[in-house]
Design brief:
Distance between the termini: 88 Å
Helix content: 40-55%
Structural class: alpha/beta
Shape: globular
CATH class: Alpha Beta
CATH superfamily: Alpha/Beta hydrolase fold, catalytic domain
Number of strands: 9
């Protein structure tokens, strides 16, 4: 039988240990950098910071975006501050987004806007909202949007332009899908308006006294003239949207049966109260945020 000799190899243990140590060091560096990147990824960029007033942990996994009512000329910080007084916010960041007129006041105070200019400024406000939401979504966060009054209309326009899945969930409060034509047409002339018994439009006889007053009316006209039962018709599922309205809303009127049916056929949640415009917000906002967004009050 032919002998088979085992081949021996000289092993350089010092070399192996050196290679292993180098590899382990490299792995630790990669892990450390990965963790650092994760932390940095959840920071808010300077560009977005310039678009918002925010409060809370910058690295929070849940972001609540507020689209403020009005239209007013100052960014609403009070709503954000009150939110942090009243809710459990350990892992929530809240931000209120600049609108065109809160970001740059100059075009609104001296000269009267045309309706077309108002439409364009509203489009700018919607894009501010979209850019902010998209920034946080790209970081992998859960994003909820709260649109109130004028902000409700901007939120509807956001959904109409960019789709229902831009954010995770929406609460639209004290808005309208199809406000009466007389309201937005009067606003286009710079006139204020209200609703009698939440149904009948009542338009002021004269436009506002200043360009600033008339232009807030025109901003409202430029967004409220849209017919959202038409503009949102292609979206068959609105189950991630809650619509909150007041049956005695004297500012935008109560939802019509046609508006309610539109929302119902698309599985939107609908909450109503017996209050006026302001009372509806005050009475229903806490439960809406708790039940739909899962953010509980203290």
């Amino acid at each position: 039988m032919k002998r088979v000799y085992l081949k021996t190899t000289n092993i350089n243990y010092h070399s192996l240990i050196g290679k292993f140590t180098s590899m382990l060091f490299l792995i630790l560096i990669i892990i450390s950098c990965s963790k650092k990147d994760d932390v940095e990824a959840l920071k808010i960029s300077q560009e977005i910071k310039e678009l918002i007033y925010f409060k809370g942990n910058e690295s929070a996994s849940t972001v609540l975006i507020n689209s403020q009512g009005g239209p007013g000329y100052q960014l609403d910080e009070g709503t954000v501050n009150l939110f942090f007084q009243g809710y459990n916010t350990d892992d929530v960041l809240m931000a209120n987004v600049h609108q065109a007129q809160t970001k740059n006041l100059d075009p609104f105070t001296n000269n009267d806007l045309t309706l077309e200019q108002a439409v364009n400024f509203n489009a700018e406000s919607v894009e501010n909202l979209f850019r902010t939401i998209q920034f946080f979504k790209d970081q992998g966060r859960t994003v909820y949007v709260l649109g109130v009054s004028y902000g409700a209309f901007l939120t509807q326009q956001l959904i109409a332009k960019h789709g229902i899945n831009v954010a995770d969930k929406y609460i639209i409060l004290t808005g309208r899908l199809d406000i009466n034509d007389e309201i937005w047409q009067g606003a286009a002339e710079g006139k204020d308006s209200k609703f009698i018994n939440a149904v009948t439009p009542d338009i002021a006889a004269n436009p506002g006294a200043s360009a600033a007053e008339r232009n807030t009316a025109r901003l409202f006209a430029g967004i409220a003239k849209n017919r959202y039962t038409q503009n949102l018709r292609a979206i068959n599922d609105l189950s991630n949207l809650m619509y909150v309205y007041g049956k005695n809303d004297n500012a935008v009127g109560r939802l019509t049966s046609e508006e309610i049916q539109f929302l119902q056929t698309r599985n939107a949640s609908i909450i109503s109260g017996n209050g006026n415009h302001d009372e509806t917000y005050e009475d229903l906002i806490v439960d809406a945020i708790k039940d739909f967004f899962g953010i509980a009050p203290k």
